[in-house]
Please model this.
Amino acid sequence: MTDFINDCIKANKQIYEYVNTHISTDDLNYSGKVGFGGDKTLNIDFKAEEIFILHLKKYGSIYSEESGYIFSNTNKKIIIDPIDGSDNISSDLPYFGTSVALQENNEVVVGVVCNLSTGILTYKTKYKKLTKIDLKTNKEIDIFTINSAKFAVIERAYTNPKICEQLYKHNIKFRSLGAIALSLCDARNYKFVLFIGKIREFDIAAALYICSDLNVYKNDEFLIVAKNTHIFNLVKDTINKL
Model:
Protein backbone atom coordinates (compact mmCIF):
# COMPACT_ATOMS: atom_id res chain seq x y z
CA MET A 1 0.00 0.00 0.00
CA THR A 2 2.95 2.32 0.55
CA ASP A 3 3.86 2.17 -3.13
CA PHE A 4 0.23 2.87 -4.09
CA ILE A 5 0.10 5.92 -1.80
CA ASN A 6 3.42 7.19 -3.16
CA ASP A 7 2.18 6.89 -6.74
CA CYS A 8 -1.08 8.63 -5.82
CA ILE A 9 1.00 11.46 -4.39
CA LYS A 10 3.12 11.63 -7.56
CA ALA A 11 0.03 11.71 -9.78
CA ASN A 12 -1.66 14.39 -7.70
CA LYS A 13 1.51 16.44 -7.57
CA GLN A 14 1.73 16.36 -11.37
CA ILE A 15 -1.92 17.43 -11.71
CA TYR A 16 -1.51 20.08 -8.99
CA GLU A 17 1.51 21.61 -10.71
CA TYR A 18 -0.27 21.57 -14.07
CA VAL A 19 -3.48 23.26 -12.92
CA ASN A 20 -1.54 25.89 -10.97
CA THR A 21 1.09 26.73 -13.59
CA HIS A 22 0.12 25.52 -17.07
CA ILE A 23 -3.66 25.32 -17.31
CA SER A 24 -5.08 26.96 -20.42
CA THR A 25 -8.45 28.14 -21.66
CA ASP A 26 -8.66 25.04 -23.85
CA ASP A 27 -8.30 22.81 -20.76
CA LEU A 28 -11.43 24.42 -19.32
CA ASN A 29 -13.50 23.97 -22.48
CA TYR A 30 -16.01 21.14 -22.79
CA SER A 31 -14.50 18.13 -24.54
CA GLY A 32 -17.68 17.49 -26.52
CA LYS A 33 -18.16 14.20 -24.68
CA VAL A 34 -20.33 13.00 -21.83
CA GLY A 35 -18.36 11.03 -19.27
CA PHE A 36 -19.26 7.58 -18.00
CA GLY A 37 -20.75 9.22 -14.90
CA GLY A 38 -23.21 11.17 -17.05
CA ASP A 39 -21.70 14.66 -16.80
CA LYS A 40 -20.31 16.79 -19.59
CA THR A 41 -16.54 16.61 -19.35
CA LEU A 42 -13.86 19.24 -19.67
CA ASN A 43 -10.55 18.64 -21.41
CA ILE A 44 -8.85 18.93 -18.02
CA ASP A 45 -10.92 15.96 -16.76
CA PHE A 46 -9.40 13.72 -19.41
CA LYS A 47 -5.90 15.13 -18.89
CA ALA A 48 -6.10 14.34 -15.17
CA GLU A 49 -7.49 10.88 -15.96
CA GLU A 50 -4.55 10.16 -18.25
CA ILE A 51 -2.12 11.08 -15.48
CA PHE A 52 -3.83 8.78 -12.99
CA ILE A 53 -3.89 5.90 -15.49
CA LEU A 54 -0.17 6.34 -16.15
CA HIS A 55 0.70 6.14 -12.46
CA LEU A 56 -1.88 3.65 -11.17
CA LYS A 57 -2.73 1.12 -13.91
CA LYS A 58 -0.14 -1.36 -12.58
CA TYR A 59 -2.15 -1.77 -9.37
CA GLY A 60 -5.36 -3.16 -10.89
CA SER A 61 -8.54 -2.29 -12.75
CA ILE A 62 -9.41 1.38 -13.08
CA TYR A 63 -12.98 2.63 -12.83
CA SER A 64 -13.12 6.31 -13.78
CA GLU A 65 -15.92 8.85 -13.88
CA GLU A 66 -14.79 9.86 -17.35
CA SER A 67 -14.13 6.58 -19.17
CA GLY A 68 -15.73 3.89 -17.01
CA TYR A 69 -13.89 0.58 -16.65
CA ILE A 70 -10.30 0.39 -17.78
CA PHE A 71 -8.26 -2.84 -17.45
CA SER A 72 -11.14 -4.55 -15.58
CA ASN A 73 -9.54 -7.96 -15.02
CA THR A 74 -8.33 -8.15 -11.41
CA ASN A 75 -9.77 -8.33 -7.89
CA LYS A 76 -8.37 -4.85 -7.23
CA LYS A 77 -10.32 -1.82 -8.44
CA ILE A 78 -9.14 1.78 -8.41
CA ILE A 79 -12.07 4.19 -8.38
CA ILE A 80 -11.18 7.70 -9.52
CA ASP A 81 -12.82 11.04 -10.00
CA PRO A 82 -10.02 12.81 -11.95
CA ILE A 83 -11.41 16.28 -11.18
CA ASP A 84 -13.87 16.69 -8.32
CA GLY A 85 -15.59 20.05 -8.86
CA SER A 86 -15.14 20.54 -12.60
CA ASP A 87 -17.59 23.46 -12.69
CA ASN A 88 -15.61 25.15 -9.93
CA ILE A 89 -12.29 24.89 -11.74
CA SER A 90 -13.86 26.16 -14.97
CA SER A 91 -15.29 29.14 -13.04
CA ASP A 92 -12.00 29.91 -11.26
CA LEU A 93 -13.57 29.03 -7.91
CA PRO A 94 -10.76 27.60 -5.74
CA TYR A 95 -12.49 24.48 -4.45
CA PHE A 96 -11.72 21.46 -6.61
CA GLY A 97 -9.64 18.34 -6.32
CA THR A 98 -9.25 14.63 -7.05
CA SER A 99 -10.50 11.41 -5.51
CA VAL A 100 -8.92 7.93 -5.58
CA ALA A 101 -10.05 4.78 -3.77
CA LEU A 102 -8.38 1.37 -3.84
CA GLN A 103 -10.81 -1.50 -3.47
CA GLU A 104 -9.73 -5.09 -2.79
CA ASN A 105 -12.32 -7.86 -3.10
CA ASN A 106 -15.10 -5.22 -3.11
CA GLU A 107 -13.82 -3.56 0.08
CA VAL A 108 -12.23 -0.10 0.09
CA VAL A 109 -8.84 -0.27 1.82
CA VAL A 110 -7.34 3.08 0.76
CA GLY A 111 -8.91 6.51 0.31
CA VAL A 112 -7.00 9.47 -1.16
CA VAL A 113 -8.52 12.93 -1.67
CA CYS A 114 -6.51 15.93 -2.81
CA ASN A 115 -7.51 19.60 -2.71
CA LEU A 116 -5.84 20.97 -5.84
CA SER A 117 -6.46 24.54 -4.73
CA THR A 118 -4.48 24.24 -1.49
CA GLY A 119 -2.16 21.41 -2.44
CA ILE A 120 -3.22 19.38 0.60
CA LEU A 121 -3.61 15.64 0.08
CA THR A 122 -5.47 13.52 2.64
CA TYR A 123 -5.34 9.75 2.82
CA LYS A 124 -6.22 6.81 5.03
CA THR A 125 -5.46 3.10 4.68
CA LYS A 126 -6.44 0.00 6.62
CA TYR A 127 -2.96 0.14 8.16
CA LYS A 128 -2.41 3.87 8.59
CA LYS A 129 -4.62 6.48 10.25
CA LEU A 130 -5.71 9.76 8.67
CA THR A 131 -2.70 11.56 7.19
CA LYS A 132 -2.27 14.88 5.41
CA ILE A 133 0.53 15.76 3.00
CA ASP A 134 1.53 19.17 1.67
CA LEU A 135 2.29 18.59 -2.01
CA LYS A 136 4.48 21.70 -2.10
CA THR A 137 6.91 20.21 0.46
CA ASN A 138 6.02 16.48 0.35
CA LYS A 139 5.89 16.59 4.14
CA GLU A 140 3.19 15.41 6.53
CA ILE A 141 1.31 18.22 8.25
CA ASP A 142 -0.48 18.31 11.57
CA ILE A 143 -4.20 17.60 11.62
CA PHE A 144 -5.93 20.08 13.91
CA THR A 145 -9.36 19.59 15.43
CA ILE A 146 -12.20 22.10 15.10
CA ASN A 147 -14.23 21.60 18.25
CA SER A 148 -17.04 24.02 17.48
CA ALA A 149 -18.17 23.78 13.86
CA LYS A 150 -19.71 26.98 12.51
CA PHE A 151 -21.73 25.61 9.59
CA ALA A 152 -22.78 22.55 7.63
CA VAL A 153 -22.13 21.67 4.00
CA ILE A 154 -25.11 20.68 1.85
CA GLU A 155 -24.02 19.63 -1.60
CA ARG A 156 -26.64 20.06 -4.35
CA ALA A 157 -28.81 22.02 -1.93
CA TYR A 158 -30.63 23.54 -4.91
CA THR A 159 -32.26 20.17 -5.67
CA ASN A 160 -34.32 20.10 -2.46
CA PRO A 161 -35.07 23.53 -0.98
CA LYS A 162 -37.60 22.00 1.45
CA ILE A 163 -34.85 20.20 3.31
CA CYS A 164 -32.79 23.38 3.48
CA GLU A 165 -35.78 25.30 4.79
CA GLN A 166 -36.43 22.77 7.55
CA LEU A 167 -32.77 22.70 8.61
CA TYR A 168 -32.66 26.50 8.63
CA LYS A 169 -35.48 26.43 11.21
CA HIS A 170 -32.97 24.71 13.49
CA ASN A 171 -30.63 27.71 13.03
CA ILE A 172 -28.22 25.68 10.91
CA LYS A 173 -26.07 27.71 8.55
CA PHE A 174 -24.79 25.89 5.53
CA ARG A 175 -22.68 26.23 2.40
CA SER A 176 -22.93 24.41 -0.92
CA LEU A 177 -19.35 24.14 -2.16
CA GLY A 178 -19.61 22.03 -5.30
CA ALA A 179 -17.03 19.28 -4.73
CA ILE A 180 -18.47 16.38 -2.77
CA ALA A 181 -15.26 14.41 -2.22
CA LEU A 182 -13.53 17.45 -0.72
CA SER A 183 -16.53 18.22 1.48
CA LEU A 184 -16.82 14.65 2.77
CA CYS A 185 -13.09 14.43 3.33
CA ASP A 186 -13.31 17.36 5.78
CA ALA A 187 -16.70 16.43 7.26
CA ARG A 188 -15.23 16.36 10.77
CA ASN A 189 -14.69 20.14 10.49
CA TYR A 190 -18.36 20.90 9.77
CA LYS A 191 -21.62 20.39 11.63
CA PHE A 192 -22.42 17.79 9.01
CA VAL A 193 -22.16 17.11 5.30
CA LEU A 194 -25.37 16.30 3.44
CA PHE A 195 -25.35 15.16 -0.18
CA ILE A 196 -28.70 15.30 -1.97
CA GLY A 197 -29.34 13.40 -5.18
CA LYS A 198 -28.07 10.40 -7.09
CA ILE A 199 -25.00 9.01 -5.35
CA ARG A 200 -22.27 7.65 -7.63
CA GLU A 201 -19.33 5.53 -6.54
CA PHE A 202 -16.84 7.97 -8.05
CA ASP A 203 -18.18 10.81 -5.88
CA ILE A 204 -17.91 9.14 -2.49
CA ALA A 205 -15.74 5.98 -2.45
CA ALA A 206 -12.48 7.54 -1.26
CA ALA A 207 -13.88 10.31 0.96
CA LEU A 208 -16.44 8.07 2.65
CA TYR A 209 -13.63 5.71 3.63
CA ILE A 210 -11.63 8.64 5.00
CA CYS A 211 -14.52 9.69 7.26
CA SER A 212 -15.72 6.16 8.10
CA ASP A 213 -15.11 6.82 11.82
CA LEU A 214 -17.95 9.38 11.79
CA ASN A 215 -21.73 8.82 11.81
CA VAL A 216 -22.89 7.84 8.31
CA TYR A 217 -26.38 7.39 6.86
CA LYS A 218 -26.86 6.56 3.20
CA ASN A 219 -29.80 5.63 1.01
CA ASP A 220 -30.59 6.08 -2.69
CA GLU A 221 -31.33 9.80 -2.33
CA PHE A 222 -29.25 11.13 0.57
CA LEU A 223 -25.92 10.78 2.27
CA ILE A 224 -25.37 12.27 5.74
CA VAL A 225 -22.02 12.36 7.54
CA ALA A 226 -21.57 14.02 10.93
CA LYS A 227 -19.16 13.84 13.84
CA ASN A 228 -21.74 14.82 16.46
CA THR A 229 -24.35 12.11 17.07
CA HIS A 230 -27.07 14.55 18.17
CA ILE A 231 -26.67 16.65 15.01
CA PHE A 232 -26.55 13.49 12.92
CA ASN A 233 -29.86 12.23 14.31
CA LEU A 234 -31.44 15.68 13.95
CA VAL A 235 -30.62 15.84 10.26
CA LYS A 236 -31.65 12.25 9.59
CA ASP A 237 -34.98 12.70 11.38
CA THR A 238 -35.65 15.99 9.58
CA ILE A 239 -35.12 14.36 6.21
CA ASN A 240 -37.14 11.24 6.99
CA LYS A 241 -40.15 13.36 8.04
CA LEU A 242 -40.38 15.07 4.65
In short: Helices lie at 2-21, 43-56, 86-90, 161-168, 180-185, 201-210, 229-240.
